[in-house]
Structure formats: structure tokens, C-alpha cells
Specification:
Distance between the termini: 66 Å
GO cellular component, one term: extracellular region
Protein name: Epidermal patterning factor-like protein
Oligomer: single chain
GO biological process, one term: guard cell differentiation
Structural class: alpha+beta
Keywords: Developmental protein, Disulfide bond, Secreted, Signal
Subcellular location: Secreted
Number of strands: 3
Helix content: 25-40%
């Protein structure tokens, strides 16, 4: 009977310390700055998106290159005469390379 009580007590202590370790790990992760991504403000959305356009998700679009960010780039039509205005499109950029989103 005493053996069973000691085993139960050891299990309780192990569970207690595992819970304590998990809590310490989670609290230290938030203290180190590992926080979930925040929502963009209206001003940030307008600045990034432009009128009627949202930046694409560039996750896994640049291969192993990091950081992969969405950028606006002018698209030059295949005309022999240069235009003053070029339409813009979203691309994923890493370093000096552009990738399709």
C-alpha cells in the first residue's frame, strides 16, 4: 500500500513540474518577443494595398530566399513606344529577384 502511495505522489509531482515547466516556457517565449502577428491598421492597409488592391501572401513563393515581401512593380506592355504610365502589379521580391505570387 505504501508503494502505491509513493508512486501516486511521484506522478503528481511529475505532473506538477511538467505543468510548471510548460508555463515557464510559454511565458519566456512571450517575453522574448514571440507574439502572434497583429492585424494591420487602416492606414497601413491603404499604404500597402493602394486603391482596390491587396498585397498577396508571399509565403513559399521565393523558394529558400528570405525575406520574401510583396511589392508593387510597373508592368511594361510589349509596345515599341514607351508610355508615360505603366500598369502596376503585385510581385514577391527577395533580394533583387522578383517572383510570381
Amino acid at each position: 500500500m505504501a508503494v502505491l502511495r509513493r508512486r501516486r505522489r511521484r506522478r503528481q509531482l511529475a505532473l506538477y513540474f511538467a505543468t510548471l515547466a510548460l508555463f515557464a516556457l510559454l511565458s519566456s517565449a512571450s517575453a522574448l518577443g514571440f507574439t502572434p502577428p497583429r492585424q494591420l491598421t487602416e492606414v497601413e492597409r491603404r499604404r500597402l494595398g493602394g486603391p482596390g488592391s491587396w498585397p498577396p501572401s508571399c509565403r513559399s513563393k521565393c523558394g529558400r530566399c528570405t525575406p520574401c515581401k510583396a511589392v508593387h512593380v510597373p508592368i511594361q506592355p510589349g509596345m515599341s513606344m514607351p508610355l508615360e504610365y505603366y500598369p502596376e502589379a503585385w510581385r514577391c521580391k527577395c533580394g533583387n529577384k522578383l517572383f510570381m505570387p
